[in-house]
Amino acid sequence: MYPVNEVFETIQGEGKNSGLAAIFVRLQGCEVGCSWCDTKHTWTLDPALQVSPEQVLCVDGEVGRWSHYSSEQLIDAFKAQGFQAKLVVITGGEPCQYDLTELCQALEAKGYQVQIETSGTELVKVSDGAWVTVSPKINMKGGKAVLVQALERANEIKHPIARQRHIDELDALLEGIDLTNKSMCLQPISQIEAATALAMKTCIERNWRLSVQMHKYLQID
Ligand SMILES: C[S@@+](CC[C@H](N)C(=O)[O-])C[C@H]1O[C@@H](n2cnc3c(N)ncnc32)[C@H](O)[C@@H]1O
Ligand SMILES: Nc1nc2[nH]cc(C(=O)O)c2c(=O)[nH]1
Ligand code: SF4
Ligand SMILES: [Mg+2]
């Protein structure tokens, strides 16, 4: 069973899959504590905020409520909601605090492509076919060996940046990691103008991809 904060269908707004229709499954719980996190309501698994399964089948806003779901119950819920998307994005919170292998396999058996959004602070336990996006949280919980496992498994590295220091930290982190076949993205933190300008400049220099959190400009979830 997985603690689910919200399930909704929208357009993937980040990374290489930007623009694709996607079902989002947001798992509750994260211990990393990024100061600029845009989903702080997912940090705590508060027993007082456990609700019935039907209540998480819509966007949460900022409440932080959650309910337990098995893989089969999630797939049944997608059907009951009439969702059409073929991409399922598992995010959080930090989804990799849970072993996601069985969930990925159950979704893939039903024909879904699975994408995982993770911080690299926990070992990545997913199916071989899952598209893993690592948004590395440097100098935070987890430690170097865990982060290296996540970076090596990553299909995509999507780094949130505001200042040059963040790019320098990423470069140091990626030393020794084989980037062949990895999609590289820079994502400006919180639509800050200077961050966006720096991300664009660096993406042009390096032939990387700009990820602007399209959903925030579109004012959708
Ligand atoms: C909310 S996190 C959940 C998944 C996982 N905990 C992680 O950090 O990758 C989803 C994505 O949003 C990014 N993010 C969170 N807050 C942001 C912000 N204020 N500006 C830009 N990106 C942000 C994260 O870096 C991550 O790529
Ligand atoms: N539309 C949309 N795209 C997203 N891509 C990653 C998201 C996330 O919160 O992990 C996210 C999200 O919250 N909404
Ligand atoms: S790791 Fe992800 S969910 Fe956790 S605080 Fe950082 S951005 Fe937010
Ligand atoms: Mg988000």
Explain the overall architecture.
The chain has 6 helices and 9 strands, in the order βββαβαββαβαβαβα. It is globular and about 45 Å long. It has a 9-stranded mixed beta sheet. The model has no long low-confidence stretch (mean pLDDT 97). The protein has 221 residues and is of the alpha/beta class. Bound molecules: S-adenosylmethionine, the ligand Nc1nc2[nH]cc(C(=O)O)c2c(=O)[nH]1, iron/sulfur cluster and magnesium ion. S-adenosylmethionine binds at residues 30, 36-39, 91-92, 94, 117-119, 135, 158, 160, 187, 189-190, 213.
Biggest sheet: strand arrangement: 3-1-2-4-5-6-7-8-9
Uncertain segments are none
Run of helices and strands: EEEHEHEEHEHEHEH
> Any idea what the shape is?
globular
Mean pLDDT: 97
> Helix tally?
6
Family: Belongs to the radical SAM superfamily. 7-carboxy-7-deazaguanine synthase family.
Subunit structure: Homodimer.
Function: Catalyzes the complex heterocyclic radical-mediated conversion of 6-carboxy-5,6,7,8-tetrahydropterin (CPH4) to 7-carboxy-7-deazaguanine (CDG), a step common to the biosynthetic pathways of all 7-deazapurine-containing compounds.
Pfam families: Radical_SAM
Secondary structure topology:
Blueprint lengths: L1 E10 L9 E7 L39 E3 L1 H11 L5 E6 L8 H9 L3 E6 L12 E4 L9 H10 L2 E6 L2 H11 L8 E6 L4 H14 L2 E2 L3 H5 L3
Parallel strand pairs: 2-4, 4-5, 5-6, 6-7, 7-8, 8-9
Antiparallel strand pairs: 1-2, 1-3
Bound molecules: S-adenosylmethionine, the ligand Nc1nc2[nH]cc(C(=O)O)c2c(=O)[nH]1, iron/sulfur cluster (SF4) and magnesium ion (MG).
